[in-house]
DNA sequence: TTGAATTGTGCACACGTTTGCACAATTTGG
DNA sequence: CCAAATTGTGCAAACGTGTGCACAATTCAA
């Protein structure tokens, strides 16, 4: 009945103090065998269990053996195989981080913050690119394969079918500045409503009557959200005809969107004078085109306000008045969310505050419609 | 002799067609059990081996069973556990990517390219931040724990002790635009020599006699390399006194370094007129300070050339003449290097070409020393 | 009709770790 | 001096997958 040798081995009488640690064959192969806990166990004259326990805080291990084991480990350059550990403990230090590339400057800052925040928590992000929706679904599947502790999404939204299959199950998903048709997901957003309100107020307070909102037509949740809140804030004044609002969408993204929007809009004789751009990056494009292509002075001819407060916004070339959202706060919120993910099953719903940063791109509108220079003043 | 039940079980007579697939207990626990190959095996009425083989191309599996297994897998949302697979096959799709944050704009573009290139190869980058040297060593250890296929380093250089312990062993390291005191590592660099030569030529050709090189004093390999080659190229002319070269280091990084350098240098009465900045980002800072703080006109008062060719360099605000290095080519070289990593043991040594991009920041130097305005012209 | 070649599938073990349980050795309390 | 408590360590099983080997079933050749 018993055929293979292995059985015989297993059933053999236990030897004294050595558990089966098959000598790692140092054959002629170029790629040398990895060092395992068995190797250090053999050298230290202990079992693999003991080695394992030496790396845990609360284990009952004598100071003596622990010291010896740690010493030998270091000497051998032994590093725990986290893959094996994860298999055993069913826990993972890996976190999925999916972003739509690093083209958008705010995304870059956000990802940067996330990476260093996660790193401080002892977590390691696998970074995946997801430029389109199907790509995002694929990415989620891939991350599931790595048994990640959590998935942080900073672009796009997972299709609900994928959501049903994976997210529902056991991988918590955190949507950052994203729409949340997936109510199983954790949601963290900056306060787009407050931001849009502040922007509207800033332009109105400066005396602008003809306003415009500029956005990329490929823009996702944030842009649309800001537009809607902007419109909503102005509703009272637009309904009386006191103020006009032009909503401009351009088939480009970021800087180029702003650039094109300026070319298109500022060539109209009676164009708006107060511009709210969905992002700072759009504002940069808008300003460059306004200045260098359309010969406008900012803020004398047109006023501009952005959203994000990128480092570039503070530089003298732009000196852009904008709504600041703090990537550090967003990252912190993600950290908190991940922290309490295994303890509670309730979903996070968090809004991060924003603030108005006044710089030099907003002033009162020109007296006369552009084209006819004013005589007074 | 045989004491535990387990032995009895192992030695028991094999049942008909069902191998031991302990029913995943669907207990009251919130976190539902992961779906494993055993689950789909049971539902498909096959063994786990068969399920495993259904996901491999060349396995001898009947079309019928494969179809059925794949169907059930999909239906169940089964995803291979890559950690377990890696343990078994001793191969990994994970690649370590270590960068010193995403503050430097060229690093961002490079990382972006690397991520999408790796993703196309079916590899997944674990992104680690390594701002300082010890941090880098820690990062390498961490990555070793994850059994990564390779480590790509875009900042700093691993200490040679770590190199000896890990890199030597079996994790191939790729140093990107880095110094290589580690000769076990694979080296990929852009052609700093050619770049510095082109920059020198461009300034000399425009008629400049008083040159300067601007760099951050924290700058690593690339900056130092460019400075040395710049100096070397000019050696003949500086030795005759025909041309002067001032080497400026500032205790800041990137934009701020350039900004400060301009404040310091351009306040001198007889300052240089042709500036080679180690990076475009430094050039931006330099130009902003020169224009807005020192009241200089570019290129009329001072000429500037950068290195990298960032997207921002092409925009009208800067319109910077620069040396272009192509991040895409660097990424491609990394891909090639990784591709042949298991087949050959020889190290990669690759230089990526650069080119001069002429824009609007270089012209002839002003006739008279700045300060005394020229009467003619 | 029989023996050989081919095809499809299961079994058992391996990968490197963690951990409940058992147990020997030591210390403690009475 | 003995029982009980404590301490330190080893054993074996588990995590989920891949794969060499064995073997049954089928096809093919003679």
From TrEMBL, chains A, B:
Residues 35-89 form the HTH lacI-type domain. InterPro entries: HTH_LacI, LacI/GalR-like_sensor, Lambda_DNA-bd_dom_sf, Peripla_BP_I. Keywords: DNA-binding, Repressor, Transcription, Transcription regulation. It comes from the Bacteria. The keyword Transcription applies. It holds the Pfam family Peripla_BP_3. One of its GO terms (molecular function) is transcription cis-regulatory region binding. Gene3D superfamilies: 3.40.50.2300, lambda repressor-like DNA-binding domains. PANTHER family: LACI-RELATED TRANSCRIPTIONAL REPRESSOR, RIBOSE OPERON REPRESSOR. This is HTH lacI-type domain-containing protein.
